[in-house]
Fold this sequence. Notes:
alpha+beta, about 300 residues, 10-stranded mixed sheet, 8 helices, 10 strands, globular
Amino acid sequence: MKVVVQVTVHDHGPELRDLSAPPTVRDLCPGYRLARWDSPAALAPSCRERLHRVLRDLAARAFGADHSSYWRARIDAGFFDQVSSLALVLGPDGSPVGWGGYHRRRFASRRALYLDAAGVVPAHRRSGLSTALMFHFLTREILAHPLRTTYVVLRTRHPAVYAAWRQSLGDARVFPNELRPLPARVRRVAGEAAEWLGDGPRLDPETLIVRDAYRMFDGRIYGTRPRSGHLALDDYFSHEVGSRDALLLVVRMSVPALVRATAGRLLGARRHPQEGEDLPAGAAGAGEPANGTAPKRAGAAGITPGARP
């Protein structure tokens, strides 16, 4: 017998009430819920503007910087018509404390997900929300096509985001890294993703650094310089990735890789239930990066957030 549970949004904050396209609301992790729109384009103009204000205010709190001009430009460019899935993380009182989203794409004739901007406000970090949100997105999409490789693409200038993906999935799946040359298909995926983002001429095909990726920001991206705690990695981002540059990550995902990352996440949660800080954007896992995850200087090994961070 199949049991269907009807979830309403009446117990949540005013941001989710009386929307033209109500979200799907479900548990995310203890004390937190997820409100997800799988067709954001169905939102009426007044509802879009309401969620625009929510996203703008959450970004300012999460990044410690004013991102209002960035979000205004994105909304005016058709953000709600373009994004495939958009989600708000709801705190214990039902108010939004984080957000994320993604785009379904095909790059280099392969199925791909581009992870959009994401963040969690400081008061709710150390709850594993960014990690839980990313695993929710990846699990939905990868299990929907279990026999295919899915390429996950994101831009970041946060060294801990890079380290978290690499620590979770390993050097064979996360590019660029200093241990493996860039595979030809990864280069093509990165190149087509950069063109779609409007960053084509700014992408270095050897390092996957996108110069001036965050040119749409009037002010700072982060209130303070992001760090991972790994000195060599932080030094690399500080000296090689400029204040408005980004690293374009290409991650090869599959069902076995998802199972491995999920098992590692659960094991880590049991060992360190109170540790690990959520990251401001796009992380698949939190915690201190392992030794050996820092890139070397530019070279043949492969490593030396358009309108979307």
